[in-house]
Amino acid sequence: MKMLFAAILMCSTVGALAEPTEALYQKSCFACHSTGAAGAPKAHDTAAWQPRMAKGMPVLLESVKKGFNAMPPTGMCTGCTDADYTALIEFMAAPAPAK
Predict the structure, then answer these.
(1) For residues 55 and 29, what is the distance between their CA atoms, to the nearest angstrom?
(2) Among 25, 31, 41, 42, which one is least packed by beta carbons within 10 Å?
(3) Distance separating alpha carbons of residues 47 and 41, to the nearest angstrom
(4) pLDDT, tens digit only, all 99 positions of the chain
């Protein structure tokens, strides 16, 4: 019984720590990628993202971590992991989600 409780507690804690990609986008990326400020490709503009995605995720991750053009290093998401950055890039490069 104690093992089951510990497993449930651990899973619920991990789930609580993970921030959904859209919420992370709103907090960290929205300011520039919603408007195209300073040349940022707009979120869900698949035509603008296509040539960037063609460079490959390793190149895009390096750009986010080091900064690129007007985007500061980490792109305003200092606590993001590579998995977070990948999810954010894929979210922004995809067509707009249906509401």
Answers:
(1) 20
(2) 31
(3) 9
(4) 444 333 443 343 334 445 799 999 999 999 999 999 999 999 999 999 999 999 999 999 999 999 999 999 999 999 999 999 999 999 999 999 887
Q: What is the dihedral angle through the alpha carbons of 95, 74, 38, 36, rounded to the nearest 10 degrees?
A: 20
CA distance between the termini of the chain: 42
pTM equals 0.80
Rounded Cα distance, 37 and 50, in Å? 18
Q: What is the DSSP string of 44-89?
A: T-HHHHHHHHHT-HHHHHHHHHH-BTTBPGGGG-TT--HHHHHHHH
Write the single-letter amino acid at 9. L
Residues paired with residue 71 on neighbouring β-strands, in sequence order: 68
